[in-house]
Automatic annotation (TrEMBL):
UniProt-listed InterPro entries: DUF6436, Thioredoxin-like_sf, Thioredoxin_domain
Record's keyword terms, sorted: Membrane, Transmembrane, Transmembrane helix
Chain ranges of the Thioredoxin domain: 28-169
Secretion signal, residue range per the UniProt entry: none
Protein name as annotated: DUF6436 domain-containing protein
Transmembrane segments annotated in the record for this chain: 12-29
Annotated organism of origin: Pseudomonas violetae
Amino acid sequence: MTRLNRKKLQASLLITLWAVAMVVAYWWYEARYLRSFIAQNVLFDGEQLRLPDELAGPGPIRLVHFWDPSCPCSVASQQHLIALIERYSQQGVSFYVVQAPGSQGHLPEAMAILQTIATLSGSDKIPSSPAVAIWDRSGKLSYFGPYSEGASCTSSNSFIEPILDALSSGRTVNASNMLAVSCFCDWPQD
């Protein structure tokens, strides 16, 4: 075997090993975090969610972010949430956060506008995070579910912008039960 052929063989083996490693890494990520709620019979059902008395009833549009600091999927949604805050807080949308029970961690400084809700009735029964709930100006739950569909969370595949735009323009939205395939972590149950 000539020296040139040996180098080509080594390069081919390296590329093959790299490709196999990428497939295994993707498979591990998909098996661990990218879950189909239809396949697992898990549903984002917002019927149990109730805002605390001081936030319930008529008021601004309220977005509640359900966050688990230990979930790697939460990192993917943070940049999207920052963009939502920058765009919609100027339109009067109020932003809140519910942190997973028993978890420890702090949101980035860019998310300092998020007001903490210590307890939100029904949040102990949500299936996974990151998740979002949106209440309209009348205080009715309009949306509960994931930020987007797929492994990444951006404005291009988001469910949130169309809902906030509709609510901001006075239209009614009723999407409090969602099925999706996305990046999720189990929400700790009390």
